[in-house]
Amino acid sequence: MLKRIFKETATYAIAGVISRVIGILLIPIYTRMLSPSEFGLYDILLTILGILVLLSGLQVESGIGRSYYEARQKKYHPDLVGTGIILCFVGALVCWLIMLIAYLFIHKRWMQNQGAFLLVVAFSALPSQLLNLAQMVLRLENRVNQFLILSIGDILTTSCLCVGIVVYGHFGVAGIIGSMLASKLIWILVSAVWLKPFYNFRFNRIYAKEILVYSLPTLPGGLVAWCQSSASRYILAGAMSLFEVGIFGLAVRIGSPVVMLLTAFRMAWYPFSMEIMGHAEFKEKCARMLDIYWLLGFPICAMIAAFGGLAIALLASKSYLPAGGLVGFIVMGILWMGAQQIVGLGNDYVRKTYLTLIAFAAGTGINIVILMATIKRWGLVSAALAYLAGNVGTTIVLMALAQKQIRMPYRYPVMLWVGIGSVVVSFWCLWGPPPQAGLSDVLLDALKKGAVALAMSAIVVIIAASKDDKVNARRALVSAYQGMWA
After folding, report:
1. How many domains in the chain?
2. SS3 for 22?
3. Which of 43, 294, 308, 455 makes the best surface tag, with the fewest CB within 10 Å?
4. Does 24 reside within a domain?
5. Which residue from 134, 274, 139 is spatially nearest to 214, judged by alpha carbons?
6. pLDDT tens-digit readout, 233-258
């Protein structure tokens, strides 16, 4: 199990690595070509695109993924996928009408350019959703090379267009959004050719019902999850300004390596979990995977948190330096969000996906309550703290609900220590040198934070490691020691 998960995670991580590396390389360009307020507008537009993709797609890809292996055995998977594509078009049409009304309203009441942004984002929703669906089918069919070409091609095309249009054309936020749309359209055409054997472009009521019965109950949960991750931007924009939204958005992007690893893990874990669901070893493998997730994930997040301030000092202009203190809360929140892929599997097993809504609603409530109660006093720190607290709350509630459906032998002390470590590392990384400090001071501060992050990681690793892990590690150390003196 572990060998396959790690192999597929590494494979899918290639596209994520390239995406995140390019994203990090573009940070100096964006932060110098865009002011924090413009960067905040760009961040807001991305959150709007996220909700439009969710609404227009109706979570169809989850419904197709749940039934795909069974459909392939019975030879009706092309009709299943084709029906899902038509459902995406219907959902996108509704979203287009809604955004057209919003565009007309903003055009009359506020700035015309902002209304035009909304219109371009609305047109980007369907291509983005169809590209996500194509990537999922390629994963389910184990067409790894085509998946990588599709993913990396979209990333490189978008990046090249962005650099050309933003740097040389000086089109700013409009250039970035337009580049994303153009790239998606190009690669949708490529994916349509590759996936031709796996879809029939015709509608089937029975398969539509099969998809929607599974996917629609997950839609409210997706909406609440979007609110949990994105609502803070709108509250920041309302209570403060787009400047603070830009600072918060940059902190999120510094944590993008964690998102990359999380995405790669999810891509490998979801098909595998669907295959083993119902097998005799299902429970033990899920519990073991959660321990391994903490064992590997926490040290990575802790070190990114420690060196987040240094990364911002190297990559961004001085106006973005306050983002450094937020990185710890962000990456630890992302870590807990990733655990939801494992702890909520019991709800999928009994097809009670609506229970996920309860968990995300609880986490969103925690997020918003903390943010609204403290934003006037703590500002940006409030948004970061609320993000971490909301994700921790969602994970705990989701696990409790899933455990009632099917009991998994999780080790709760491991989660407790990960929680303690998340809080300690996040608050320790909050304080740093003043903005006028030199690069040497920032580096020294990062090393101090790294020492604390390393100590907390050692505690989590010792607790999370199983007896077999410790025995194997001890043997490896003994062998290495003997090899030194041989």
Report:
1. 2
2. helix
3. 455
4. no
5. 274
6. 888 888 888 888 888 988 888 887 77
